[in-house]
Amino acid sequence: MIRIRGNVAIDLGTVNTLIWVAGRGVVLDEPSTIAINSANGAIVAIGSAAESLAEKEPQEINVIHPLRDGVIADLEATAEMLHGFLRKAGSPGRLRSRALVCVPSGATWVERRSVAAALEARRRYTVELIDEPVAAAAGAGLDLGAGEGGFIVDVGGGTTEIAAVAGWRVVRAVSLRMAGNAMDEAVVNAARSGLGLILSQRAARQLKVELGLTGGQAGWAEAVGLDAARRTPRIEKVPGDLVATALEPVVAAIGRTVQDVLSDIPAGLAEDVVRGKVRLTGGGALLPGLASRIEEIAEIGAIVAEDPLRCVVRGAALMLESHRADGLAGVSA
Q: Is residue 25 located within the same domain as residue 99?
């Protein structure tokens, strides 16, 4: 078995968890999901295997998403899931490694402590925490070590982190508990009210990614759900404008918050933000039309960072490799 002989960086997200291991890079990217046998408490599956059972309601199998709005809602399930993921990544054996875990900037002390507790349960790691926007900024290419500042919109599943950063610190930030999951729910509601179609969360997410705010190339996408009246399976061509209209309230709220945070940044940071533009990271950054809509609302340039899904874990890895995690305010658990 491969053994971790160094540090690990963890992007513990509401929807997905990513793990980077020193010397090996990103070794795990799986759904933050665990399936437990409700009869005996045994773990049935974690990650992708567990997510494949979600919303299918197999008897005696409880599929749990243990994080909500970017923070831990079920500590025991999160601890079991994390240790399962780390076993997949390679056991650290007896070596006590450092683990740098990314958390929402708006997480409370109790919420931060619960993240540390989930990893420290088996005393294998010295756990340190870092605000997601700082890690996202580093992963999006900002040279924070050279004093460069910037503006990050990290759209995850449970939260959207909107922040101005400089010098490996948050300058101004809002952790908006409205992100990818809220978009999925909006599509589910729109399909039911507008088409009489009951969609799974997975089907809604696929429509969101395919159609987004632009309507897609064809202006529609096919989805399979249940007929709301007959409760029988049905295939439907879902119009792009129905999805775009459903997504708009969530996107508008993100755009307005970007505008609010921008209005509060120091004058000395303005040039860095204008030159570097608003950088979109996280899975939600891939929503078609999001960058242009943010530009319209906030009246500032916006770009999607390279490989936005991995910006946070990549930035945390850079911090570990450069030892920048040491002594950062609010990092130590």
A: yes
Question: Does 129 reside within a domain?
Answer: yes
Helix/strand/coil for 60: coil
What is the strand order of the sheet 125-131 is part of?
25-31, 16-21, 8-12, 97-103, 125-131
Cα→Cα distances 113→70, 97, 129, 177, 331, Å: 14, 18, 9, 19, 11
Tens digit of each residue's pLDDT (9 = 90 or more) over 103-131:
888 888 888 888 888 887 765 778 899 99
Amino acid at 104: P
Q: Phi and psi at residue 277, in whole multiples of 5°? A: 65, 165
Per DSSP, helices labelled H in the chain are: 48-51, 75-89, 109-120, 132-139, 180-195, 201-211, 240-262, 267-276, 290-298, 311-321
CA distance 2 to 285: 34
DSSP for 67-83, please give it. Answer: EETTEES-HHHHHHHHH
Rounded distance, CA 245 to CA 173, Å?
28
Judge contact between 156 and 320, C-beta under 8 A: no
Residues 150 and 186 in one domain: no
Instruction: Say if residues 51 and 44 touch (Cβ distance below 8 Å).
Output: no
Sequence-ordered strand ranges (E) for 157-315: 160-166, 169-176, 197-198, 220-227, 233-239, 278-281, 302-304
Question: CB–CB of 257/174 below 8 Å?
Answer: yes
Could you give the CA distance from residue 218 to residue 230 in angstroms, rounded to a whole number?
Answer: 29
Q: What is the pLDDT of residues 239-284, one digit of tens each?
A: 999 999 999 999 999 999 999 999 999 999 999 999 999 999 999 9
Residues 61/41, Cβ–Cβ less than 8 Å: no
Q: Which helix (H) or strand (E) holds 150?
A: strand 149-155
Query: Are 170 and 207 in a shared domain?
Result: no
Q: Could you list the residue range(s) of the whole structural domain that residue 44 is in?
A: 8-134+313-321
